[in-house]
Design a protein that fits this description.
This protein is an alpha/beta fold. It contains 28 helices and 15 strands.
Length: about 725
């Protein structure tokens, strides 16, 4: 009966209409051929109008839901049923949203909003390079480095939607699709599942050590059952090394021979200094014990200052203050802020894919499996043939640090496979666009990110022909050549140093070029000028003048790090003197005191989000998952905290204050976020100023070096943009 009335027909037609399935910034491409007939839709309205006229009217004029929502709310409120009126208002608003906004739109907007709250700024460069690809062609975004598991895709999704009006469908691990929550979101965002070999490899029984081509079994291995000649073995060594080899001969359950020594295929995860700091964090039991001690004490002390009926406010305030105190203890135990800052390089392995490896320590092993991703490539190729957009992280895994790891050949196979399936007379256009993600601190709250677009890449026709008609060796050569071209395009998009010392040097040279020099440079020239400086200082016959500037800059950065001092405070000392520094320090301390209410407001959320994200990072052995879990837990913790505070205000001060708090609390929460962001810089400035005021010798040495560098900035004016900076400085690996 409902089919005869035309309801199902209308739903299908509405789903096929392009304007109902796109984001607010998404527009149909010129090549799209949409079949949409207003006449056919008008005829469908004539079916079943006697019984379903209200439903059909809402289908055509959804703003009727808004009118009904506010009308019912006003009518019920005037009749004395305020609470029922608000329920009706919310219900009709929800119906309107579900009617006019697709599930993908709601997911995209929700998670992009979370990413914008988590990051202080999303800066974009190179969007002008996307202008020539706005002709409806298929696009593959090659994104790297992949250092923030769930945040990276939504940053790219937001930037691409604003620049081109396209929705990006990302390749997502198949294990994510198996998760009931994340799988539903991935399907809603139109992601494409892909199976990774490491996700389906069965773990072997026992453990192994490797010496050359000899593999020794320990703790009850069963090589005879698990392996045969030609089988693959994967050994997971320390520091995330994934070592692979081929079995030549099995001599027993605890001994086998390989055809060649193990080779490093990929670095699954390398531990950074921050990961080792997680071993100092307080356990969940310790945090709970501290809260159970602090909160009752604060409540008992404060009870005498309030009326008896205000006990909800007393206990809620005690809980917030207790969380603030425990979070301070938790932060001090984990980060040890009193220790001297050392230029500790991240412990990343520089092993290439052809280095032979011995494993002398007992390690786990697994059986190498071949995976079939033909269905994934079919979906991607169909999407590209229709002018779709695909996002790929070619490294294939998340990791810490800005270093780029070897690429997998998926992008080349997608490109060549789509070209092979094209049967039209017109030339098919597909572009691969490198995208660099440059985080200041990817796992820290309210830090910026720079998204840099590279030049669009179109692989040579001879490579396409070689892949389509060549042998396996020739196809392998075509893929490697294409992926090297993608790597060469992505390297200039990443502007991050590998270690703390290089980062401090980079920032100081940037400061000298931008602030101290009378010649003003644009953003594009600054990196090139720094590249020239580093290249000249590292050459066989460096210019003595340039070498002296670099040496003094390095010494100055080392002293700043050693004594926990900021360059801004040294400049204030030079320009205004010590009395001004004392005055400014007192003002900053006063600002910290004024920010205490804001810190108290977000203390429970900060504590529980930090504990949960640290546990996840500690379990994974890498910090790249920490920021993602912060972004996931934030939308869960803050609404709960908002509801708790609203109930407390309602119970303590009545209905009016409760409703007022319900409306104003989100604004107060955002103020707290920005206050916490600014107070981080205030805290560092106070600490730096106190050190400069107390330690006279340090103050004099830093002042002398900084004055010398101010004169050295004149030397930097005459440099012209040069060649590419060595990868060891800019944060990229030579593959």
């Amino acid at each position: 009966y409902m089919q005869k009335s035309g309801i199902f027909t209308m739903k299908k037609r509405r789903a096929s209409c392009p304007y109902h399935s796109m984001s607010p910034v998404e527009f149909p491409s010129p090549q799209a051929n949409f079949q949409y007939s207003p006449v056919a839709k008008e005829n469908s309205y004539k079916k079943g109008t006697q019984f379903f006229f209200p439903y059909l009217m809402i289908q055509r004029y959804p703003f009727v839901l808004l009118w009904a929502a506010f009308g019912l709310d006003l009518t019920l409120s005037l009749s004395g049923h305020i609470f029922i009126g608000k329920i009706a208002l919310v219900g009709f608003l929800v119906l309107y949203v579900f009617h006019t906004v697709s599930f993908r739109q709601m997911l995209s907007v929700s998670w992009i909003t979370c990413a914008e709250i988590y990051l202080s700024e999303i800066a974009v460069r190179g969007t002008e390079k996307l202008e020539k690809i706005k002709d409806g062609r298929g696009i593959i975004f090659a994104i790297g480095p992949h250092v923030n598991m769930f945040v990276d895709p939504f940053v790219i999704m937001k930037v691409v939607a604003e620049a081109t009006g396209r929705h990006v469908s990302f390749l997502t691990a198949a294990v994510t699709y198996k998760n009931s929550l994340f799988g539903a979101m991935a399907r809603g965002l139109q992601c494409v599942p892909i199976v990774r070999p490491e996700d389906v490899e069965p773990v072997g029984k026992g453990s192994v050590t490797v010496r050359g081509v000899e593999v020794f079994g320990h703790e009850g291995t069963r090589f005879m059952e698990e392996f045969g000649p030609g089988a693959g073995i994967v050994v997971k060594a320390r520091d995330g090394l994934r070592l692979v080899g081929t079995v030549d001969k099995v001599s027993g359950d605890d001994y086998l021979l390989l055809e060649t020594p193990l080779r490093c295929q990929a670095i699954v995860g390398s531990k950074s200094p921050e990961v080792f700091a997680l071993s100092r964090t307080l356990s969940l039991a310790q945090v709970t014990g501290l809260l159970s001690i602090c909160c009752p004490i604060i409540a008992v002390v404060a009870q005498g200052q309030f009326l008896p009926h205000q006990w909800p406010l007393v206990w809620s305030g005690a809980f917030h203050l207790g969380c603030l105190l425990v979070y301070t203890v938790y932060w001090v135990a984990r980060d040890e802020p009193w220790k001297t800052k050392e230029a500790a390089e991240m412990k990343t392995s520089s092993t290439s894919s052809c280095d032979f490896q011995d494993v002398m320590e007992i390690s786990q092993y697994s059986l190498k499996q071949s995976v079939d991703n033909s269905e994934t490539f079919d979906q991607v190729e169909s999407l590209l043939l229709q002018g779709g957009t695909v996002g790929v992280f070619p490294e294939g895994f998340t990791h810490d640090g800005p270093k780029i790891h070897p690429f997998k050949a998926g992008i080349a196979k997608m490109y060549f496979g789509t070209m092979a399936r094209h049967q039209g007379a017109e030339l098919l256009k597909i572009s691969v666009i490198p995208v660099g993600l440059n985080y200041a601190s990817p796992h820290e709250f309210r830090r910026p990110v720079l998204v840099q677009f590279g030049n669009p890449i179109e692989f040579r026709p001879d490579l396409v022909s070689l892949w389509m008609m060549g042998s396996k060796e020739e196809q392998h050569y075509a893929c490697n050549t294409a992926m090297q071209e993608v790597m060469d395009g992505l390297v200039p998009c990443i502007h991050q140093p590998l270690d703390t010392a290089s980062q401090d040097m980079f920032e100081m040279l940037h400061h000298l070029l931008v602030n101290d020099s009378e010649c003003k440079f644009n953003d594009e020239d600054i990196a090139s000028k720094i590249q020239d400086l580093v290249q000249q200082s590292r050459s066989c016959n460096p210019d003595p003048l340039i070498a002296g500037v670099m040496e003094r800059c390095s010494s100055y950065c080392a002293m700043l790090g050693k004594h926990l001092v900021q360059n801004e405070q040294v400049e204030e000392l030079i320009v205004f003197g010590a009395p001004y520094l004392v005055f400014v320090t007192l003002i900053r301390i006063h600002a910290l005191v004024l920010l205490l209410p804001y810190w108290t407001a977000v203390a429970p959320a900060a504590l529980f989000i930090s504990i949960y994200s640290d546990l996840k990072a500690k379990k994974a052995g890498k910090m790249c998952v920490k920021g993602s879990w912060k972004g996931i837990m934030g939308p869960i913790i803050f609404p709960v905290l908002h509801g708790e505070c609203t109930l407390v205000m309602w119970a303590t001060f009545g209905q009016f204050i409760g409703v007022l708090w319900f409306i104003l609390a989100p604004i107060i929460c955002m103020c707290a976020v920005f206050a916490a962001e600014g107070s981080r810089g205030v805290t560092q400035a106070v600490k730096s100023a106190l050190i400069l005021l107390i330690q006279k010798n340090t103050r004099q040495s830093l002042r002398k070096l900084r004055e010398t560098l101010q004169f050295d900035s004149v030397t930097l004016k005459g440099l012209h943009p040069g060649t590419t900076l060595p990868v060891s400085v800019m944060g990229n690996s030579s593959i």
